[in-house]
Write a structure and sequence with these properties.
The protein has 237 residues and is α/β, with parallel strands linked by helices. It is built from ten helices and ten strands. The strands form two sheets. The chain has a six-stranded mixed β-sheet with strand order 6-7-8-3-9-10, with helices on both faces. The chain has a four-stranded antiparallel β-sheet with strand order 2-1-4-5, covered by helices on one side. The longest helix has 16 residues. It starts with 7 loop residues before the first strand and ends with a helix.
């Protein structure tokens, strides 16, 4: 019996910036409804992997596919329209727009889905309370909620979060993880880059560990939990 076609896949990808090669023969895939964590120390190629998924970095070898369709070299907006939603590192919200304007700016009326302003407000009630505030009037945690809500307004099939809880206070970090658990329960595929091992193990079905632009381990939470030397060897500073 053949394996189902992944929702998104990188196949034997080399990529980088100019002469600087960052990714080496990298292959990863995320299936529909699957939650995957991409882990590794700083500078190991995680963000470059995310940028390659969205066409922001073009592979010099290998290919990017979405539902089996070759999207290598296609512009980022075409790739995103295939059902990929990005929560970028640093949030990158529109600071001079209101919360509501930020959300409406990324709404995708041509794509069917359940994510509307009301649905985002139910997931993050704080955004409803702050809907007329400008982006630069929000706390870091509120900005991250807004960045997630903005990505959800595209009604994605895959939500990709780069450094999902970086720099957040523990209580706000917990709110983000709780929201991602709700999204998982609704069947949304998620690829999340994050350093918080215990929370990632509770959320994710599978983990991918990177070192120096290569995948050095991947497996389920149960396997990761039994191999603490792996976390020490590849994840700790």
């Amino acid at each position: 019996m053949s394996e189902p076609t992944p929702l998104v896949a990188l196949e034997h990808v080399d990529a980088g910036y100019g002469e600087a090669r960052v990714l080496f023969d990298l292959s990863l895939a995320v299936a529909a409804g699957e939650v995957v964590t991409l882990m590794g120390r700083n500078g190991m190629g995680k963000s470059t992997t995310i940028k390659t998924l969205f066409g922001l970095v073009e592979p010099t070898a290998g290919r990017l596919t979405v539902r089996g369709r070759d999207m290598t070299g296609r512009p980022p907006h075409e790739i995103a329209r295939q059902g990929l939603g990005l929560v970028p590192e640093g949030r990158q919200i529109f600071t001079r727009l209101t919360v509501e304007e930020n959300l409406l700016a990324t709404a995708a009326p041509g794509r069917r889905g359940a994510w509307t302003l009301g649905a985002v407000h139910r997931l993050f009630p704080r955004l409803a309370e702050r809907r007329v505030n400008l982006g630069n009037q929000l706390s870091g945690g509120e900005q991250q909620m807004l960045a997630i809500g903005r990505a959800l307004m595209t009604n994605p099939d895959l939500l990709v979060l780069d450094e999902a809880t970086e720099g957040l206070a523990p209580v706000l970090r917990d709110e983000i993880w709780a929201a991602l658990a709700i999204l998982k329960g609704e069947g949304l595929a998620i690829l999340v880059v994050d350093k918080h091992l215990e929370a990632s193990m509770r959320l994710s079905d599978r983990h991918i560990v990177m070192e120096k632009g290569r995948i050095v381990w991947q497996g389920a939470s149960t396997a990761l939990a039994t191999d603490r030397t792996l976390a020490t060897r590849h994840l700790e500073l």
